[in-house]
Design goal:
The structure is a single chain. The chain is an alpha+beta fold. About 25% of the residues lie in helices and about 15% in strands. The protein is built from three helices and four strands; from the N terminus they run H-E-E-H-E-H-E. A four-stranded mixed beta sheet has the order 1-2-3-4, with helices on both faces. The longest helix is centred in the middle third of the chain and has 10 residues. The chain is globular, with a radius of gyration of 12 Å. It starts with 8 loop residues before the first helix and ends in a 6-residue tail after the last strand.
């Protein structure tokens, strides 16, 4: 695993297939999928297990009650996680 700050992250996001409508503050590549933002672990686990025909998943923006942003852990599973299609649809 590697972690890096990328000053061209918005360009990199677009190259990966993440549209601006799904943009957030962090981008990860997990098992061949893009994971954008403060996505709950349960959603990432489901993505990897189900392997849907998506570029990835995202929690757009920076919701204050998402994982890593505060709030109660009980609310994290209720975050709206969106799928990102190969055509850039959200």
């Amino acid at each position: 695993m590697s972690v890096s700050d990328d000053p061209e992250r918005s360009v990199r996001r677009r190259e990966i297939g993440i549209p601006d409508a799904a943009a957030s503050c962090h981008t990860a590549l997990v098992a061949g999928y893009a994971v954008e933002g403060h996505v709950p672990l349960q959603a990432i686990e489901r993505l990897v297990a189900d392997r849907p025909d998506l570029v990835g998943i995202a929690v757009p923006g920076m919701p204050g009650d998402s994982p890593g942003m505060g709030g109660d852990e009980a609310t994290w599973a209720n975050q709206e996680v969106v799928g990102i299609g190969a055509d850039g649809s959200v």
